[in-house]
Amino acid sequence: SALENLIPAFPGLPPGAKPGLSNIVTMYTAARIGLPEALYITLIKAIFAGLTRGPSAFFMSISGGLLSTTVMFVLLRLQNRPFGIAGISVAAAVAHNTGQLLAAMVLTGTSAVVGYAPVLGFFAIITGLVTGAILKIVLPALDKQSKFLT
């Protein structure tokens, strides 16, 4: 998350839109270790956001993160996994944006922020595909490395 904040904003990206690279760690944890540990990572990420960007950032991060982590965990546990890693990553990104929009509605006291949903949805698809592809590429190495830790 800290490294992601160092990446300059891409022209045309909506305000606050980030690649979500830290979600790779959360999805790996949800897939290989468990929901409590993935939620713990989500909480740590939200605390970091709060410490570095303030209480509103904490609320936005925890709202999006809890929903996203729960969605990814549920989809990862499906028997046939009809969406694959990339699809689950996209669903988690959409869930994260949904949680953030709900938090923004509470913070601003208006539902006008929902107008931002189509733009966020578009970028959730792109960033979800990117983070899902990265996880799929690094998953074999992570699994191999984790054997040495046990």
Task: Give structural notes.
- The protein is mainly alpha-helical and 150 residues long.
- The protein has six helices and no strands.
Radius of gyration: 15 Å
Beta-sheet strand percentage?
A: under 5%
Envelope shape: globular
- How far the N terminus sits from the C terminus, by CA atoms, comes to 27 Å
User: Low-confidence parts, pLDDT < 50 over ≥5 residues?
Assistant: none
Number of strands: 0
Helix content: over 70%
> What profile does the largest beta sheet have?
none
Question: How do the helices and strands line up, and which of them pair or pack?
Answer:
Elements: H1 2-6, H2 23-32, H3 35-53, H4 55-76, H5 84-108, H6 117-149
Helix pairs in contact: 2-3, 2-4, 2-6, 3-4, 4-5, 5-6
Quick rundown:
By secondary structure, the chain is mainly α.
Key phrases:
single chain, 150 residues, mainly alpha, 76% helix
